[in-house]
Amino acid sequence: MWSIIVVGAGPAGLACAITAADAGARVLLLEKAGDVGGALPYSGGHLSAGGFTLQRDRGITDDPERHFADIHRISRGTGREDLTRRSLHEQPAVLEWLFDHGFTPDPGTPRIVYGHEPYLTPRTVHAADSPGGPAILSVLRPLLQAHQAAGRVDLRCGVLVRDLLTTGGAVTGVRTADGQRLHAPSVVLATGGFGYAPDLFAELEGAPLTTSAAPTATGDGLVMARAIGAGLQGLGRYIPTFGGLPPVDGDLRVDWTHRPHLVAPERPPWEIYVDRAGRRWVAEDEPSIDRKERLLTTVDRMTFWMVFDARALRESRPMVHGWSPDDLAAACGRRRGVHSGADLASLAERAGIDPDGLRATVRRYNDGVARGHDADFGRTHLPAPLAEPPFYAIENHPVTLITFAGVDVDTDLRVRHAAGRTIPGLYAIGEVIGSAAVNGNAFCSGMCLTPALAFGRLVARHLTGGSR
Questions:
Q1: Which residue of 43, 103, 218, 408 is 20 to 30 Å from 402, comparing CA positions?
Q2: 195-228 burial, b if ≥16 CB within 10 A, otherwise e?
Q3: Burial class (CB in 10 A: 0-12, 13-18, 19+), 389
Q4: Cα(248)–Cα(254) distance, rounded to whole angstroms?
């Protein structure tokens, strides 16, 4: 009845289902949430490619090879070259596909994004509104609906897939949580990552979990694939996103709208960063977020505090996105992780920092400001000592945007057994293959969402006899 079963209706699954239906395939699309979209409602929606119309219109010279060189530099060659190149050659076509179907990027793009280690060439686009993921979903949804109306896509939401069905070592379908057995010659896992699965995250990434992932990101596809012997890739590639306020009310998810502004080229810091012992551990004006993220992995529980005084609150650009200085002051003692004190000792006690360590660190930092030289870390932006009460501390945790480990696949996105051979009938796309596949041990702008869409299209063409 169906030629393909796609499990997961996030960006990868949607791109796969739509492209396969474009080629005339009958697709069963299963989604455990109540609606399609996966992580798109939460996503910043950043897309990137080398050599597309908006770049050419602005006189930007670029191509997939230049894009690959940038990724190789940022990731230190820790990604998979075969999968990265495969995705990059499809990514310009992904952007043109979205543009042709109504996606309108921010007029200030393509641009270089500095939230992570930047590219050397402007190649990132996103919607004007933030987050930008919903704008992409608004393009994909009507394409899907047209195929539903024509009977080419059978979409079933609220359906949790529990197991993969196999016959003679080949995958022949899926079993749902309510016991339905659904069959097709090919099954495509597009179930996303595991950034909302604390136990699995601890096992595979070995790090504390504070997340911005969708609540549906519980690693279902990875668990099912492992159960039939699939191998893993990307282990040991974890790196945190640099800092976010701790969650509240027992939730795992951070408030990504109100996140500390920690990008030094965009907001030169007035504060210092300290660990639980009250010690600094990096030059706060270090321009490379990538370097800061790597150093953060050496800090106790990857948790640090921004410590500053009343003058810094008043004269710095806003410390937290969406908060005025008055908003920040009002949050102290009321919002988890935001503290103030009349002196450093009381601030440290409230924040959970060692008081003696903090006092010694601030004294040494202030001496460096007076001399105009930071002997400890070489910080050069030294606008003022931390001396005017009240004093403030904002607690920052490592934030998981994406998960790096995932199901191992070959260049045609066929899932591979732990022994290396492919598992007939089973494919995987999107974050279920692990973001390390194309990012390596790094974050490369647009290289989460765009490869998900690219691989979805590539698998669909592979399964329907289209060009590779």
A1: 103
A2: bbbeebbeebbebebbbbbbebbbbbbbbbbeeb
A3: middle
A4: 8
Positive or negative CA dihedral for 314, 320, 323, 326?
negative
- Residue 435: count other Cβ atoms within 10 Å of its Cβ: 28
Q: How many residues are given for the chain? A: 468
Task: For residue 200, give the nearest of 406, 464, 427, 453 by alpha carbon.
Answer: 406
* DSSP, residue by residue, 350-379: HHT--HHHHHHHHHHHHHHHHHT--TTT--
Report the relative pairing of strands 47-48 and 124-125 from DSSP bridges: antiparallel
Per-residue pLDDT of the chain (468 residues; tens, 9 = 90+): 899 999 999 999 999 999 999 999 999 999 999 999 999 998 899 999 999 999 999 999 999 999 999 999 999 999 999 999 999 999 999 999 999 999 999 999 999 998 788 999 999 999 999 889 999 999 999 999 999 999 999 999 999 999 999 999 999 999 999 999 999 999 999 999 999 999 999 999 888 888 888 889 999 999 999 999 999 999 999 988 888 898 888 777 787 778 899 999 899 999 999 999 999 999 999 999 889 999 999 999 999 999 999 999 999 999 999 999 999 999 999 999 999 999 999 999 999 999 999 999 999 999 999 999 999 999 999 999 999 999 999 999 988 889 999 999 999 999 999 999 999 999 999 999 999 999 999 999 999 999 999 999 999 999 998 654
Written as six digits, the tokens of 120 are: 């050397």
Q: 420's torsion region: left (phi>0), alpha (psi -120 to 50) or beta?
A: left
Instruction: Provide the 8-state DSSP code for 238.
Output: -
Strands (E), 2-116: 4-7, 27-31, 47-48
DSSP characters over 121-148: S--EE--SSSS-HHHHHHHHHHHHHHHH
* Amino acid residing at 467: S
Element spanning 93, H or E: helix 81-100
CB neighbour class for 314 (10 Å; exposed up to 12, middle 13-18, buried from 19): exposed
The rounded distance, in Å, linking the Cα atoms of 283 and 269 is 10
Rounded-to-10 torsion of CA 330, 333, 334, 339: 70
How far is Cα 350 from Cα 32, in angstroms, rounded to an integer? 42
CA distance 374 to 371: 8
**Angle at CA 201, nearest 5°, toward 198 and 203?**
110
